[in-house]
Amino acid sequence: MLRTALILCLVLLSACGDREAVLLSPEARDTGVVYTSFVATNRGRTEQGWFSDERSEELDYLTVDVSVPPKHKAGEIKLNLHRVDPEEHFALVSKREFNGSQEFTGALRHALAQQPKADRDVLVYVHGYNNSFADGVYRTVQMKHDFELPGVIVHYSWPSAANPLAYPYDRDSLLYSRDGLETLLRQVRAAQPGRIILVGHSLGTMLMMETLRQIEIATPGWSRRALGGAVLISPDLDIDLFKMQANRFAALPEPFAIFVSSRDRALQLSVRLNGSRKRLGSLTDPQELADYPVTLVDVSEFAKMGGTRHFTLGTSPLLIALLSKSDALNDAFGRDQAGRSGLLPGTVITAKNATQLILSPLLLLN
């Protein structure tokens, strides 16, 4: 156990630098493809006016423009924290801060109105463990770009320490951040989007579920009415805890997708750290969730060699290529069993209310 933990920590640390530092590169606007991400955060401020791992009692609202470089490859976020090459690196181009929640909601409503009527959806992304402010923004933009997502993106940045050795701090921070995420979700709904798709990764899925649970206690049925779908990516969440959270919902959002992998090394370490039998993101038996109308999407076959394999959905070029086929993805998450089995022959398993989709790179040959 000690050897495994040490190796994984070394892998994580090798990717770390001064990740709170943010370098604005306005010149990148003329080089890359620029996306605007709306952001709400309860992080404290740095001396430079950006956001740290400290906790704030107030939410700050802003938009950040991010340039995706011409040489970008699907699944990669190439950075240089000290000298940005706009041809090679993701870059923060500019930011605009709002004077409170009403101004934020108004700007979001305006951005939605600029979209075609069929594309006025909002994707809200909640980052996971060991993320800086910039990490989460870059990931939000990378997913929009690589998956060619329509609509507007919103990022909720909670005060992770951005340190692989600060897991307990991040666990406390996510609990600290529930009210902030609830406030953001209600503001996004007030902007009247076509749909809200809520996406969480790693520990961010626990924050997501805890927040929806407290909303359901106060306003039963809100999640089904307000959300057009929920996605849990590599959830670092105890299975029993997930069931108790889900039991408080009048009805889970539809679709409700959980991306899992038996090869996720970060979740294997989390099992040891938490003393639990298995994390939700490693679950490959749909029988354990048979009472819940969820779709387990097993992406184990796409896991890369090396690293933590903790974000296969966003880092595997083959998986991105498969899921970017919008018609295939819509059919796979549809309620029609015949349509799903025709799309992914031999990969669909049902267990009462739950469905499992086992994806393979071979599907790209079809």
Automatic annotation (TrEMBL):
Q: Tell me where the transmembrane regions lie.
A: none
The answer to whether UniProt assigns keyword RNA-binding to this entry is no
Establish whether keyword Hydrolase is in the entry. yes
Q: Which residues form a coiled coil?
A: none
Per UniProt, which keywords does this protein have?
Answer: Hydrolase
Entry-linked Pfam families: DUF900
Q: Which InterPro entries match?
A: AB_hydrolase_fold, DUF900_hydrolase, UCP033909
- Tell me which PROSITE patterns the record gives: PROKAR_LIPOPROTEIN (PS51257)
GO molecular-function terms, A-Z: hydrolase activity
Reading the lineage from the top rank, the first entry is Bacteria
PANTHER family recorded: ABC TRANSMEMBRANE TYPE-1 DOMAIN-CONTAINING PROTEIN, TRANSMEMBRANE PROTEIN
Protein name (Swiss-Prot/TrEMBL): Putative esterase of the alpha/beta hydrolase fold protein
- Give the species this sequence originates from: Thalassovita gelatinovora (Thalassobius gelatinovorus)
